[in-house]
Amino acid sequence: MSTYIFILGKHPDLSIAELKTRYPKADVRRGGDSFAVMESELEIDQAEFNRLGGSIKCAKVVGESDMGNQVDVLSDVLFSHYKDIKLEYGLSVYSFSEKQLRPILLKLKKKLQADGVKSRFINNDFKNISAAQYKSIKEKGIEIIVAKTNQAFLIGEVVGVQDIDAYSERDFDKPFRDMEMGMLPPKLAQILINLTGVSGKIWDPFCGSGTLVMEGLLMGRDMIGSDIDSDRVDGAKKNVEWLGQKAEAELFTHDATKPFKSDYEAIAFEGDLGIPHNQHINSDKLNQIISDLDDLYVKFFENLKNMEFGGPIVAGLPFFRLRNGDEVDMSKTVEKIESLGFKSTALLRDKYVLKYSRENQAVGRAIYRFQMS
C-alpha cells in the first residue's frame, strides 16, 4: 500500500471526484486546501498520471515530519538520491505559506553541504516549482513536495506532473479547430471520460472536432464519435489521424436524437453550448438559446430511453454568466431528463453537479452524471 499526494487543479471538487471514480478501490480524502491524499495498492507513475485531467502534480509519500525535524527528513530523502555528482532538486510546499521556502531551502542546503552533498536547488525567487522547471530536472534531479495536514507534514517525491506542452499541442496544433462551436479543453475531456467509471468503449454523440475521442484514445480507450455536422466529423477524422495512435475510433455523421446500433458501455460528451456570445448577451437571446438546447437534450435523452441504454452518461451542459454576475443554468432541462427516468448520481458526496469554467468566461460547463433508474 502506497500513499500519494495529488496537487489539485483550479476546480478541486472536480479533481477529487475524478480521483475517486478512477480509483474506486483507493482511499481518497481531502488533505488540505490544495491537495488530496490517496492510499492505494496501484502504482502511480508519469504514464498513469497522464490519464488524469484534474490534478497538477502527484508525489509518492516517503516520510513525515513536524516543523522541528523537517530539514533533517528532507536531507535524508535527498541524500538517498545523491550519486557523487551535483544533485539538482526543487521543493514545493502546500497548505502552508510559500514564504517558508526561503528558510527551509537555505537550511537544507547548509545541512547537505555539511554532509558532503554537492547540491543546487532550482526554486526561482523561492517559489514553488512549475511544470516547466520540473521538466528541466526530471531526468537528473528530483522535486520534493511538503504538504501540511492536520497531523503532520507529508514528504513526497514527485512521480507525475501535467505535461502542459503536450496539452497545448493537442489543443492548438491539431489540423482542425472549429472556434464557432466552442473548444473543449483536453483536460476536461479526460475528466469526463474518467467520471464514467468504466474501462470499456465510450460514445461521444456530439464529438465536434474530436477532442474527447482523441483523449480517450490516448488513455487507451475504445472510442465512438458522432456528430450531426459532416464537416466536423471529417475534421475529427483528420485530428485522430494526426494524433497517430494505433487504436482507431469509429467516427461517423449521425443525429444524436436518432437511434443507432453499436456496443458501448458509457456516454461522455460536451454538447452544444449555444451560439457563441460574450457576457453582454441580452436575456431574450439567452432564453432562446436555452429553449433550443432544452429541445435538443430532451430529445437526445428520449432517444436513449427508447434505445434502452442503461450505462452511465457524463454530460457537460452549459451555464451562462450575465453582465451583472448572475448565472443561468439548465436545471429545468435536467429536471425533464430526470422525469424520463435518468437520475443524477452524486459526483462527490452529496454534490450532483460540479462546474468547470475560467474566470470571467461567459459560458461554463456544468458536469452531471446520469443513469437510468
In CATH, what is the class of the largest domain? Alpha Beta
Quaternary arrangement of the chains shown? single chain
* Straight-line distance between termini: 36 Å
N-to-C SSE series? EHEEHEHEHEHEEHHEHEHEEHEEHEEE
So what's the overall shape?
elongated
Mean pLDDT: 92
Count of spatially separate domains: 2
CATH architecture of the largest domain: 3-Layer(aba) Sandwich
Query: Gyration radius, to the nearest Å?
Result: 23 Å
Q: Approximately how much helix is present in the residues?
A: 25-40%
CATH superfamily of the largest domain: Vaccinia Virus protein VP39
In terms of DSSP E residues, the strand content is 25-35%
* Number of contiguous helices: 11
Low-confidence stretches: none
> How can the largest sheet be summarized?
9 strands, mixed
- What is CATH's topology name of the largest domain? Rossmann fold
Structural class: alpha/beta
Tell me what you see in this structure.
By secondary structure, the protein is an alpha/beta fold. The protein has two domains: 2-162, VC0802-like; 166-372, Vaccinia Virus protein VP39 (Rossmann fold), CATH 3.40.50. The protein is 32% helix and 27% strand. It is built from eleven helices and 17 strands. The protein has helices at residues 12-22, 46-49, 70-79, 101-114, 131-137, 164-172, 186-195, 211-218, 230-243, 283-307, 331-339, and strands at residues 2-8, 27-30, 35-40, 55-65, 87-94, 119-121, 141-148, 153-161, 202-204, 223-227, 250-253, 266-270, 313-321, 327-328, 342-344, 354-356, 363-372. The strands form two sheets. Strands 9, 10, 11, 12, 13, 14, 15, 16 and 17 form a nine-stranded mixed β-sheet that branches. The protein has an eight-stranded mixed β-sheet with strand order 2-3-1-4-8-7-5-6, with helices on both faces. Helix 1 packs across helix 7 (186-195) and helix 7 crosses helix 8 (211-218). The longest helix has 25 residues, at 283-307.
